[in-house]
Design goal:
The chain is α+β, with helices and mostly antiparallel strands. Helices cover 61% and strands 16% of the residues.
């Protein structure tokens, strides 16, 4: 794993872990708050419903009280039952009437029960429902919890009822509230709490995502910034190394030219002087010595040429004295003599440029020519130098057999020369492009105008 990825994970992972911990705590606290809210609300709801039930029964008793003046008239009773039958307050909220013996006198939702004696009626739990209601009424009115069929669903559910006694006719008048409505209210509260928790968690996730994205963007920006700084430092270091190499090459070339070459020239003069004196002797022994000296002079001349070639390769004097075009021309002439390839130089002028740029371009051409001589099998080489207002372009083209640049650059040993060429140019802020195929190879270098300024 790369270092920048490790740094990124070290920055993001604790953030995500902290957000996950916060989210878990928020969820637990929200659930606890919802449960506490329900625990606080439920008694209030039950108390409110109890008050309403008692109030409804009192209203029912008051609604038939005016009929007492008619005595124990059957018509008055029928009218009272009719009034109570019409006093419902919802789909499943109604009044019921029993006498003290347990006979059903009025039931608007279950008329089939009217007239039946339900004294011994039991609910699914075995409770004597009607007896409980009558007992509560005898106590002056009270609440009773029992199970009864809910008309709208046909299911037996828990019901909270309140009953009172009608004193004139000894009726038990009551109403009730099905408790599954409270369960539904609790469910609504739970659902709302769950929705609120989900919304909160969604907000936390969004905040975490945005925070992680900000951290990632900042991390990437920091990485890119640090990478640019590191690349700039590496380019500066590489440039400094190249300058140091060139200075060392210049020093060695100067020592070869001014030191070793001069010594060899002196030795050559001594040999020539001795050869002249031996020639004056004219004897057979003198002729043998003369021949030996002539061979020695040939070897000295070869050494001189080799020293000059090495000295020129290390640092051509033409590059410092006459500029890049003259140095390239001299190098191409020597290359043509050595390799017997047809070489052409196309240069429009001798552009002015810093010494580092001229040296880099000279070394790139030198390396390219060495590669062409060793590997390409070419017969023609063309070097083109064009200087425009926006950029300087240098290209080296041959008609050799070509190669795969990607494959060569991936090989540490064989791609070292190409990598060095590319690093030299990129250090100056330029671009080096290599195109190669069966028709030959082209190396093109583009340097922006700002790289040509000293």
């Amino acid at each position: 794993m790369q270092l920048r990825m490790k740094v990124f994970l070290l920055a993001v992972f604790p953030l995500l872990l902290a957000v996950a911990a916060i989210a878990a705590v928020v969820q637990l606290e929200a659930q606890a708050l919802a449960e506490a809210e329900m625990a606080a609300v439920q008694p209030v709801l039950v108390a409110s419903q109890r008050e309403q039930l008692q109030h409804y029964v009192n209203l029912a008793l008051g609604a038939v009280e005016h009929l007492h003046s008619r005595g124990d008239d059957e018509a008055a009773r029928s009218e009272a039952l009719s009034i109570l039958r019409r006093m419902d307050f919802g789909e499943d909220n109604y009044f019921f009437v029993y006498d003290l013996s347990g006979r059903s006198l009025m039931h608007p939702r279950q008329p089939e029960l009217v007239g039946q004696n339900l004294w011994n009626l039991r609910d699914p739990d075995g409770e004597l429902v009607i007896q409980k209601l009558i007992d509560a009424a005898r106590r002056g009115g009270d609440y009773v919890e029992f199970k009864w069929v809910r008309p709208s669903t046909g299911k037996v559910v828990r019901k909270l009822g309140y009953v009172g006694i009608e004193p004139k006719w000894n009726w038990v008048i009551g109403t009730g509230l099905y408790l599954d409505e409270l369960d539904e209210a609790k469910g609504r509260i739970d659902r709302e709490a769950s929705r609120a928790i989900s919304t909160t968690m969604g907000i936390i996730v969004v905040i975490a995502g945005v925070a992680a994205l900000i951290v990632a963007v900042c991390g990437l920006a920091l990485n890119f910034s640090e990478q640019r700084v590191a690349d700039a430092k590496m380019r500066a270091l590489a440039h400094q190394v190249v300058l140091s190499q060139e200075r060392e090459r210049a020093r060695v070339a100067s020592e070869l030219h001014d030191g070793v070459s001069q010594l060899l020239v002196a030795v050559k003069f001594i040999f020539e002087s001795a050869q002249a004196r031996v020639a004056m002797l004219g004897s057979e022994a003198g002729q043998t010595i003369d021949k030996t000296m002539e061979q020695g002079l040939e070897r000295i001349n070869e050494v001189l040429r080799e020293v000059r070639r090495i000295s020129h390769g290390l640092r051509p004097t033409a590059l410092d004295d006459l500029g890049l075009v003259a140095a390239l021309s001299q190098m191409l002439e020597e290359f043509e003599l050595r390799s017997h390839l047809q070489v052409r130089l196309k240069a429009e002028d001798n552009p002015s440029m810093p010494e580092a740029v001229a040296t880099a371009l000279f070394r790139v051409v030198q390396e390219a020519l060495n590669n062409i001589e060793r590997h390409s099998g070419a017969t023609e080489v063309t070097v083109t130098l064009m200087n425009r207002q926006q950029a300087l372009r240098l290209s080296i083209t041959d008609n050799g057999m070509g190669f795969d640049p990607t494959d060569i650059l991936e090989q540490p040993r064989s791609g070292l020369g190409l990598s060095s060429m590319r690093e030299r140019i990129e250090t100056l802020g330029g671009l080096l492009t290599i195109r190669s195929g069966t028709g030959g190879t082209s190396i093109e270098i583009v340097l922006p105008a700002n790289a040509l300024k000293a």
